[in-house]
Amino acid sequence: MIIDEGILLDPETRRVLVINEVGGKIWSLIDGRRTVAQIVDGILQEYEAPREQVEADVIAFLEQMMEYGLVSFKSR
Predict the structure, then answer these.
(1) Dihedral in degrees, nearest 10, Cα atoms 57, 60, 65, 66
(2) What pTM was estimated for this model as a whole?
């Protein structure tokens, strides 16, 4: 069986988010050390898609996670 969805749970708000396979991969690459470009590169290693589309999808995912308060960006 192939599982193509994941679940994120914010224990503070008890919000549950269902993410697809690509969202799960993006989530697994968020470690506080990788840049957005490195996350995009990681997705491109797994999936065949134009870089511009992957970059747009990664940014959209990160923006949504920021809206939910699950990720934040730090300046250098």
Answers:
(1) 140
(2) 0.82
Do 58 and 40 touch, CB atoms closer than 8 A?
Answer: yes
Contact 54, 42 (CB under 8 A): no
Query: Please, where are the H alpha helices in the chain?
Result: 21-29, 36-46, 51-67
pLDDT at 26 over 90: yes
Indicate the SS3 state at residue 41. Answer: helix
Distance CA 50, CA 34 (A): 20
Q: What is the dihedral of CA 28, 31, 34, 38, to 10 degrees?
A: 0
Residue 43's pLDDT is what? 96
